[in-house]
């Protein structure tokens, strides 16, 4: 696997692949890679001749400076994993390389980006769209892979691709969970042993809510989740929304959609964890 740090080297490596008529898959990441990322890379390796994985902690999508500073950075270990997964190129640029000057572009995909994460992390999706659109321009992939754990991000990127006519296919990949159900996240590395046990209640509550929902209304199911998280030691609910999986707008009745998704964000200590489940 080739490790490149500049757009120039990235594009030289890509030109060589394109000259051989090879298809290219892109997996954008912020590093601190885990089995969830590995599943995206393996899928891309299976579906494309060559896979580029970007490893870049994008400052423009962090609205909390401490969160940006504390975000784990483990490039050497990441590159070993990427090599094992069969990636062709790891692209690990500096902030100056990606943003030679401040990015003043403004992306707005209301109402997809005004609810949930968009409401609680103002500017977050603008930053995501800035970096992802730059990566699409730099790599010009045939396909790009994103995890369904960031459910809202995936919907917004699909919309950006649609509106900006990027000639590529977005591939959404299922959440990867620990054996006990906790959704894999780079942020899990920041949990203490006690918090790790407490965090388990997030996925357990979502699983239980799917059963509960079979016999209860949307409002009752929402209350069920809120009450269980409120009763769980060490957890603080930021929001739980039952939404239509395409529009991301809250539903009032199960009949409002054939694609209901529950999206949750919970603080475990100062670690902000997200998860979601289909009903
Ligand atoms: O999902 C992530 O890790 C990031 O938001 C992404 C898509 C790599 C953009 O920085």
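Q: What amino acid sequence fits the structure above?
A:
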């Amino acid at each position: 696997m080739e490790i490149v740090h500049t757009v120039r080297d990235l594009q030289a490596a890509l030109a060589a692949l394109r000259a051989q008529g090879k298809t290219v898959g892109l997996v954008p990441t912020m590093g601190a890679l885990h089995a969830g990322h590995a599943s995206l890379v393996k899928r891309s390796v299976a579906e494309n001749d060559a896979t580029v994985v970007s490893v870049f902690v994008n400052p423009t999508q962090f609205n909390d400076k401490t969160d940006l500073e504390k975000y784990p950075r483990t490039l050497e270990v990441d590159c070993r994993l990427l090599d094992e997964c069969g990636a062709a190129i790891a692209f690990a640029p500096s902030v100056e390389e990606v943003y030679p000057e401040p990015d003043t572009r403004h992306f707005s995909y209301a109402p997809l980006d005004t609810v949930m994460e968009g409401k609680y992390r103002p500017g977050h999706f603008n930053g995501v769209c800035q970096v992802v659109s730059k990566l699409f321009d730099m790599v010009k992939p045939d396909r790009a892979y994103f995890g369904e754990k960031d459910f809202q991000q995936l919907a917004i990127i699909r919309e950006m691709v649609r509106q900006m006519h990027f000639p590529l296919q977005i591939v959404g990949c299922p959440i990867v969970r620990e054996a006990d159900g906790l959704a894999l996240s780079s942020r899990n590395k920041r949990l203490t042993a006690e918090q790790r046990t407490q965090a388990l209640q997030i996925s357990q509550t979502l699983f239980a809510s799917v059963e509960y929902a079979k016999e209860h209304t949307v409002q009752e199911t929402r209350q069920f989740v809120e009450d269980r998280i409120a009763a769980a030691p060490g957890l603080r609910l930021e929001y739980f929304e039952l939404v239509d999986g395409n529009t991301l707008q809250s539903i009032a009745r199960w009949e409002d959609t054939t694609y209901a998704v529950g999206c949750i964000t919970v603080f475990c200590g100062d670690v902000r964890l997200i998860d979601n489940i289909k009903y």
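Q: And what stands out in the fold?
A: The mean pLDDT is 97.
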